[in-house]
Design brief:
seven-stranded mixed β-sheet; 10 helices; four-stranded antiparallel β-sheet; 13 strands; alpha/beta; globular; Rossmann fold; about 300 residues
């Protein structure tokens, strides 16, 4: 991993520069890295974000070639659950727009979701930051651009839906990206944003050991209220807010908290169905109470 350089920033939600340290001296829990990182909380709106944060030119060093989302799991319990989730998400897209609507996925990785959408008759395209991963997606005959959304130079009002699943928390330029999404969406088009929820019992229990921190890759950590405000100020109307049951977040957080114990590393892993079952009731209850660690917001561009 190359040396990461830093820059100071302001709150992406309200624009304020006033903030207070929340967690300091944070380390990358998944990849070796000399640098430490700081999370701050905005004094004006409570949004949590990295400050200082990695510069755009060195952000790529935070995503080594063995970054897990770049290498899809094809077998085992995790792969089975992922296939089930993708099928559910395709059905949800169909409820909002019917084929042959045009759908763009930002952060499409290797294109599994786009492939499923295409089988349903949707016109699909993708944007993926990593050039090598984008090339892999294109081997599936998918229209995938490498780089940022702005660099893709897509035509205005060209998509019926834009899908951003666990992308917004990685963006150094949230406002600019949402402005670009608004431009390329047709009037009445939908935007789906899924992201971790920072104000939830998972974070209360595990603190910096919570899976969804994922420092330094997560630059912005949203609450439901903060995300809704961000989308409204970008020109979208909130259509629905959903909280997902996510037992895997609890399993991986236990793994991080207890990683010094060999027995814990062996038990608290996604390939162990008993570990997932252990937290399924709790995660289901939290979703019903709207306190889950994962939120999905459907937003609509005004007609």
């Amino acid at each position: 991993m190359g040396k990461i350089e830093f820059e100071t920033t302001t709150c992406s939600v309200c624009g304020s520069a006033k903030c207070a340290s929340w967690f300091t001296n944070l380390k990358d829990r998944w990849f070796p890295c000399e640098e430490t990182f700081t999370l701050v909380r905005c004094n004006e709106c409570g949004h949590v974000y990295q400050n200082p944060r990695p510069t755009m030119s060195t952000l790529r060093f935070c995503y080594p070639s063995d970054y897990q989302p770049y290498h899809p799991m094809r077998h085992g319990v995790s792969a089975m659950l992922k296939r089930w989730v993708l099928e559910r998400e395709v059905r949800e897209c169909v409820k909002h727009k019917s084929p042959p609507a045009a759908i763009l996925e930002i952060g499409c990785a290797h294109g599994d979701f786009l492939e499923k959408l295409r089988t349903q008759g949707f016109k699909v395209a993708g944007v993926e930051f990593d050039e090598d991963v984008a090339k892999r997606a294109r081997t599936k005959n998918l229209d995938v651009s490498a780089g940022t959304l702005r660099e893709a130079c897509l035509p205005s009002s060209s998509f019926d839906m834009v899908y951003m699943k666990h992308v917004i928390e990685h963006l150094p330029d949230v406002r600019e990206t949402l402005a670009e999404v608004h431009r390329i969406l047709k009037p009445g088009g939908y935007l789906l944003v899924a992201t971790p929820n920072i104000y939830c019992p998972l974070v209360d229990c595990f603190g910096v050991d919570a899976l969804d921190f994922d420092i330094p890759r997560h630059l912005n950590l949203y609450s439901s209220q903060g995300l809704e405000r961000q989308l409204r100020e970008a020109g979208f109307a909130i259509a629905s807010v959903n909280h997902d049951p996510v037992p895997n977040s609890w399993v991986r957080s236990c793994h991080l908290r207890l990683e010094r114990y060999k027995w814990a590393r062996a038990f608290f892993r996604l390939e162990n169905p008993f570990a997932l079952l252990l937290f399924t009731p709790l995660s289901g209850i939290l979703a019903l109470l709207r306190r889950s660690s994962r939120i999905r917001v459907w937003a609509k561009r005004h007609e």
